[in-house]
Structures are given as C-alpha cells and as structure tokens.
Design goal:
Layout: H1 2-22, H2 24-30, H3 32-35, E1 41-47, E2 97-103, H4 104-115, E3 127-139, H5 149-163, E4 182-202, H6 209-229, E5 232-240, E6 244-247, H7 249-254, H8 263-277, E7 284-291, H9 298-312, E8 319-324, H10 333-341, E9 347-352, H11 358-366
Parallel strand pairs: 4-5, 4-7, 7-8, 8-9
Antiparallel strand pairs: 1-2, 3-4, 5-6
Helix pairs in contact: 4-6, 6-11, 8-9
Length: 370
C-alpha cells in the first residue's frame, strides 16, 4: 500500500511541476510566489488538479449517441430553450485554487529547466574550506557541556541494578564518575562555494512604485537561482540618488526618494565594499544594478566607466545592469555601457520594459553561467 501511495504522490508532484512550468511566466510577472514566501518554501495557487481515471456507469444511461433522435439533430439547446448565461443562481461550488508548497530548491530547478540556464562554473579559487564538527559516538571522558544525560542515566541504572542497590519503590538514580558518558566528535572539512550579491537600485524621483516592484520580483528570482548554485551566499543592498548608502532588504524595496541621480556614488560604494570585505580569490561576486537610465551628467558616466574598468570588473564574476523602462528616464546609461563594454563578457545588460519582460531579463543575466 505504501508503495502505491509513493507512486501516486510522485505522479501528483510531476503534474504539479508541469503546471508550474506551464504558468511560470505568469507567476513571475505577477509576483504571486513572492507574496507567499516562507523561509525555505513558497506557497503557490494553482487550479484544482484531478488525476484522470475511467468511471464506469450502468447501461442505458443515455448520452450522446443513445436514445431518441435523428441523424443531424442539434445537440445544443435543451427542450426548455435555455440560453447560456440565463437561469437562476445555483447552489454548487465553483472552481477553487489549490495551495501547493514548493521548496526554493525545486523552484530553482524549474526556473533553470524552463529558461535552459547553464550550471554556474565558479571562478578560480572559490573553494573555502570550513570545518564542521560531526558527532560520531559516545565515550567515557569529555567536557561536561557534551555529557549525554540519557546514556549517563542508563549506565547508572544498570550499575545499581547489577549491584542490588536499586529500589523500585524509591527509584533514586545517582550517577557516579564512572557512569558519565559524553558525546564524541570529529571535525570534517566542508568545502563551500561562497558568493555575494550586491544589489544597487536608483531610487530617484523618476523610479516609481511600478519600477521598484519589477526590481523586487526580479531580485527574488535571481536570489533563488544563485542560492541553488552556492552553499553560502550573502546579499547586500545599496540605494542611490545623488548619494549612495547601504540599507537592509526591507528598506531597499520600500524607499521612495526624490532628486537627481549620480550613479557613480553607488559604484564607489560597491567598489569599497568589495575591497574591504570580499577578497576576489575567495568570493564569487555579483553586482546587479537597476536604474531607469538617467544619470546626472556625461562626466559622471565617465567616472562610472572608469570605476568599472579599474575597481569592479577585475574582482567580479559578472556585472549585471538592468534598465527598467520609466516615462521619466532618458534611458541613456545602457547605451553608454554597451558602447564601452560591448565585447566584455563580464558585463551583461538588459532592458526591462515591464513585468512581462522579467523572465527574458533573467535569461539575459544568468544565461552565460558565470
């Protein structure tokens, strides 16, 4: 019976997986998964899924091809001539949505399959050896912090019974030194591929709520994929208008500023963050910058290009720039980046004209497997 249940459950999960892949673009553009995100899972609303099966009825039940009638008779309207959409309110339930929990790991696999994303090949010496203590057994010596209370109690009880000092009417168990048992362990090397994602976003007056919602949705999917590729990952957040500052995740997505835009302020802070905290030979570094393409001046764009060439690009796996279409932004900055870095594989640019373009933008950023 348990084998049949496992088979049915596996078949059900395959059907659900197919439904998610079929509607993935809709889920991405509407942000439905993010709204139901937990620690390691997301809840996803999908239509009720029925596994098809044959149902046998009795004979002479009527139906198409049975009963009275002539060849060519219409099968449309009934005898009462009811028209579609007419009639009284019914008392039968309509279609309900089914909430399915999907792990972020499985979600990343579905995203990778649907977008045909290559596995990321970490650069250089990305391997960081961490040491993990693994408990392997019990021994009679050790620190008190690792004393195994159950095994100690059991040993004391065994000793008292064997010596005839145990009284069931007064079950007092007093361990002595020889009764004490301790957990033993050994340290094992745990190779890790560490990565950091540095998100930068323009929060000047021309970046409205719709543009920031696009950034929020795309960042979730970028996070989901990159976390599936690395054991350890950090996320850092920088916002900027004419000045840049580091903020937490919640502030990053909710801040609404006004004023001008000086992109170099974010690039300077990003470069300093990398230099101070993330050695390129130990970290895989992914800066993602989102803006509407407006910059304060040509001189500031020149400063940005110089910072990328000398400070940022030598240290990173990939630099991604996503330009979110805005009715107030000039859209010039992406043209400048393409002019200077068109043949540099470390720089990837993407134009995001709306929520429907998020999936294509993710493919642009992650499709090279860097």
């Amino acid at each position: 019976m348990s084998q049949k249940i496992d088979l049915d459950h596996g078949r059900f999960r395959q059907i659900i997986r197919g439904k998610i892949k079929q509607n993935l673009r809709k889920y991405i553009s509407q942000g439905e998964m993010i709204a139901r995100k937990g620690k390691d899972k997301v809840s996803l609303p999908i239509p009720q899924v029925d596994i098809p099966h044959f149902k046998h009825g009795g004979k002479q039940q009527g139906g198409v091809g049975q009963g009275q009638g002539q060849v060519g008779d219409s099968l449309g309207q009934g005898e009462d001539g009811d028209q579609p959409g007419q009639g009284q309110a019914g008392d039968r339930p309509g279609e309900h949505l089914l909430e399915i929990e999907v792990s972020l790991q499985e979600l990343a696999e579905i995203l990778g399959e649907e977008l045909e994303l290559p596995r990321i090949q970490p650069k250089g010496t990305e391997k960081i050896i961490a040491w993990k203590d693994k408990y392997t057994g019990i021994r009679s010596t050790g620190p008190e912090s690792l004393r195994h209370f159950r095994r100690t109690f059991r040993q004391a009880l065994r000793r008292q019974i064997s010596m005839g000092t145990y009284d069931p009417a007064h079950p007092v168990i007093v361990p002595i030194r020889d009764d004490k048992r301790y957990r033993s362990w050994r340290s094992e090397p745990l190779p890790q591929s560490n990565a950091v994602i540095i998100y930068m976003m323009d929060v000047s007056g021309s970046m409205g709520d719709e543009q920031k919602e696009i950034v929020r949705i795309e960042s979730f999917w970028l996070d989901t994929w990159l976390r599936s590729q690395y054991h350890g990952i950090e996320s850092r957040y920088i916002i900027h208008d004419a000045m840049a500052k580091e903020v937490d995740r919640d502030t990053f997505f909710k801040t609404r500023e006004s004023g001008g835009t000086m992109i170099s302020s974010a690039y300077k802070l990003c470069a300093k963050m990398i230099e101070d905290e993330y050695a390129p030979d130990q970290w895989n570094i992914y800066p993602f910058h989102f803006s509407d393409g407006d910059n304060w001046s040509v001189d500031d764009t020149v400063t940005c290009v110089e910072l990328m060439k000398t400070k940022i690009l030598p240290a990173v796996n990939l630099f991604a720039y996503g330009q979110v279409e805005s009715p107030y932004g000039s859209g010039q900055f992406i043209k400048d980046l393409r002019e200077h870095f068109d043949e540099d594989e470390r720089v990837v640019t993407s134009e995001i004209k709306g929520k429907d373009a998020i999936m294509d933008s993710i493919k642009d950023f992650l499709g090279k497997g860097k």
